Amino acid sequence: MTPESPDPIVCLRGVSKTYASGFRALNNINLDIRRGEIFALLGPNGAGKTTLIGIVCGTVKATSGTVSADGHDTVRDYRAARASIGLVPQELHTDAFESVWATIKFSRGLFGKAPDAAYLEKVLRDLSLWDKRDSKIMTLSGGMKRRVLIAKALAHEPKILFLDEPSAGVDVELRHDMWRMVRELRAKGTTIILTTHYIEEAEDMADRIGVISKGELIVVEDKDVLMRKLGKKQLSLTLRHPMTSIPAELKDQALTLSEDGQTLVYTFDSQKEETGIAALLRLLSEHGIDFKDLRSSESSLEDIFVNLINQSKVESA
Fold first, then answer.
1. Taking CA atoms, which of 38, 93, 129, 259 is between 20 and 30 Å from 212?
2. Radius of gyration over alpha carbons of the chain, in Å?
């Protein structure tokens, strides 16, 4: 994958990771993440998403390769690099006996930031945590603990925010609060990198998409470009009279017939000047094939993701 950004805020070059067991979690990752973008990293379980995040954040040591965050090498200049990063991990690890306020105040100080009670209050209010500021974390619900993790990650005003499966097991209200905050942060220049199993969230939020499979980046692309290049549009025609098979004279058309014989589905590339729809409708009319309903649909990001992963499995088999 060839990096593109002239001034990336996160830069990975030749990053690989092989664990002591011999398992190769990442293989020669080259990736630039642009300043101020929302970058979604998609992949099935075990694909290497969390390992990649761990290497950038300094919690996992790469076997080979280099990583920089906001211009700082994450190994040689770890403290400066880590100070630019906020991480919301999957696991609910918090200081259970501390209060919410003490926890985020400590997090801010840990990265050398001067006290700023007004900023921390805003973070807690944005996450609906202000009325819980004096509560011990151990007394909070799982959803509230997730909010505390987000507040901790934001306490030192990082330029880069990693969200590792942030929606896993959270309620709808928190999800809405979180994505509203993400949009606000991006508007202020924060770079957001997220992994998610909720592909509709990536489709809604991301500027660019990276797909990782078996430790390799198989595609990195602007979301809109990816949807145009790999998305397919379909025209479904509900027939007046069911068919048992597609007539021979239509075999060269991109048609499939539903199992009940009631629907013809035509797949086409919407980016081409000629979609072929007009010619198809003429052919159907010429051969006396009548339809009573017509509707169009297009691939979702989930369809594209599933196809990419399946294709990757076939190629590596």
1. 93
2. 24
Q: Residue 1 pLDDT more than 50?
A: no
CA dist 22 and 34 (Å) reads 33
- Please tell me the distance from the alpha carbon of residue 225 to that of residue 163, in angstroms, as a whole number: 24
Percent with pLDDT over 70 in the chain: 88
* The two three-digit tokens of residue 3, written as one number: 């990096």
265: left (phi over 0), alpha (psi -120 to 50) or beta: beta
What's this model's pTM, rounded to 2 decimal places?
Answer: 0.75
Q: Residues 90-127, buried b or exposed e (16+ Cβ, 10 A)?
A: beeebeeebbbbebbbebbeebeeeeeeebbeebbebb
**CA 61, CA 125: separation in Å to the nearest integer?**
36
Question: What is the number of alpha carbons within 13 Å of residue 142 lying toward its C-beta?
Answer: 8
The more confidently predicted of residues 203 and 211 is 211
Q: How far is CA 271 from CA 8, 68, 176, 233, in A?
A: 30, 38, 33, 10
Closest CA to 9 of 61, 67, 59: 67
Closest Cα to residue 196, out of 152, 164, 172, 160? 164
Amino acid at site 257: L
Our measurement of the distance from residue 49's CA atom to the centroid of its chain's CA atoms, rounded to an integer in Å, reads 10
What domains sit in the chain, N to C, each tagged with a CATH number? Answer: 8-84+158-228 (3.40.50.300), 232-298 (3.30.70.1560)
- pLDDT: which is higher, 169 or 117: 117
Q: What pLDDT was estimated at residue 6?
A: 60
Question: What is each CA distance from 218 to 31, 40, 253, 286, in whole angstroms?
Answer: 11, 14, 30, 44
Q: What's the one-letter identity of residue 169?
A: G
- Candidate from 27-41, 158-172, 187-201, 294-308 with smallest mean pLDDT: 294-308
CB 50 within 8 A of CB 194: no
